[in-house]
Amino acid sequence: MQGFLSAERQGAVLRSLRSDEGTLSRDYLAAARDVLRELVAMPDLIQRLPLERKPGCYARNLLAGDENVSIWAIVWGEGSATSIHDHHCSCCFGVVSGVVTETWYRAIDASRAVPTEEQQRQPGYVACMLPSGPNIHRMRNFGPGEAISIHIYGFDHEAHASSIETEYTAVGG
Ligand SMILES: [Fe+2]
């Protein structure tokens, strides 16, 4: 596939994420959490992968994927940020290196949101969230240096361009 992980490791990871109950189930989220805990515990291996980097921006690198899930390594250039967004699918992520600042928002209408909480996610941090609803967030790397995180999304990377459902503009912050 993409050459970032061996075929064996890709197969093992994708098999472990297969759930009869689908990618919104408790079993799936627990399996995704296990995969992330394993990957964030090997920062040397992840950092040695030939990942794409975009100075000042974030770069997504597909590590493995099938018709149910896709696993990405995201390299956050210093100063990079996502839009304020929610997801059409479950979204699990873990921080491998650097610090990723995650800000949570509350929608006040269909296109605007106000910040409610901000946390610095350190290496080893793992989180899983379900789609849409109140799960609106933004991720940024204030540096110094790059950050790397692993994301597991419950979507077919060949059917959807990204995991983003709706983007918002910030009000009051
Ligand atoms: Fe997100």
UniProtKB/TrEMBL annotation:
Fe cation binds at residues 85, 87, 137. There is a cross-link at residues 91-153 (3'-(S-cysteinyl)-tyrosine (Cys-Tyr)). CDD domains: cupin_CDO. Pfam families: CDO_I. SUPFAM superfamilies: RmlC-like cupins (SSF51182). One of its GO terms (biological process) is L-cysteine catabolic process. Transmembrane segments: none annotated. GO terms for molecular function: cysteine dioxygenase activity; ferrous iron binding. It comes from the Bacteria. The keyword Oxidoreductase applies. InterPro entries: CDO_1, RmlC-like_jellyroll, RmlC_Cupin_sf. Keywords: Dioxygenase, Iron, Metal-binding, Oxidoreductase, Thioether bond. Belongs to the cysteine dioxygenase family. This is Cysteine dioxygenase family protein. It comes from Bosea spartocytisi.
